[in-house]
Design brief:
Pnp Oxidase, Chain A, 223 residues, 27% helix, alpha+beta, globular, single chain, 31% strand
């Protein structure tokens, strides 16, 4: 298996026989209007290419021992303020971010050979923002949020399914299921945003934006 892993590789850019990858090279000029317009364009490109869950991102935090922890969550908002996701505030990731309010999030769109990593401090969003998103969720997702004490141990799948049934019985046919207490949004305010574009011979394009006191620094990085 190790030998097979060592041999696994994909050629990007002009070496790709399927023509799936954008042949135009990423350059610093594309970030003249900031990180947000380009990130939105790449997100749309990923969606148009039918990448599964193009808003999925690997969220990195640190635990109380200072050890890194990662998991995949869904981005539910992009704005000039930052990258938004939602969670139970008692979950592992939320408690870790409360202790160390800084996160890294990576969007990896492998089929189109693009990736974006966002790093920065985090903050909880207002109850109004949470309420607006909550009521846009499917009923099943809202019931699931009530049923699950996120990140806490449970004895079996049967117990978890029973908790969901109990939540459904509790709210009956109510359309307006209220926001669960201690549940809401977390915003990552970008300080560093790096764009990666796959290219032939592992000579990838990497452009990094870093926030400074009077604006942003844009740099090309070696792959």
């Amino acid at each position: 298996m190790d030998k097979d892993l060592a041999a696994m590789r994909v050629g990007y850019g002009s070496q790709d026989p399927g023509g799936r990858y954008d042949e135009s090279d990423l350059d610093v000029d594309e970030l003249s209007d900031g990180w947000l317009p380009l990130m939105r364009r790449w997100m749309v490109t990923a969606a148009d290419a039918e990448v599964a869950e193009p808003n999925a991102m690997a969220l990195g935090t640190v635990d109380v021992q200072g050890h890194p922890c990662t998991r995949t969550v869904l981005c539910k908002g992009l704005s000039a303020d930052g990258v938004l996701f939602f969670t139970n505030y008692a979950s592992d990731k939320a408690r870790q971010l409360e202790a160390v309010p800084y996160a890294s999030a990576t969007f990896a769109w492998v089929p189109i050979a693009r990736q974006i990593t966002v790093r920065g401090p985090v903050e909880r969003v207002s109850a109004e923002v949470t309420d607006e998103y909550w009521h846009s969720r499917p009923r099943g997702s809202r019931l699931g949020a009530w049923a699950s004490d996120q990140s806490q141990p449970i004895g079996s799948r049967a117990e978890l399914d029973a908790a969901l049934r109990h939540a459904a019985e509790r709210f009956g046919g109510d359309v307006d299921i209220p926001v669960r207490p201690n549940w809401g949004g977390i915003l990552i305010r970008p300080e560093i945003v790096e764009f990666w574009q796959g290219r032939a011979n592992r000579m990838h394009n990497r452009i990094r934006m870093s926030r400074v006191d009077d604006g942003w620094i844009v740099e090309r990085l070696q792959p």
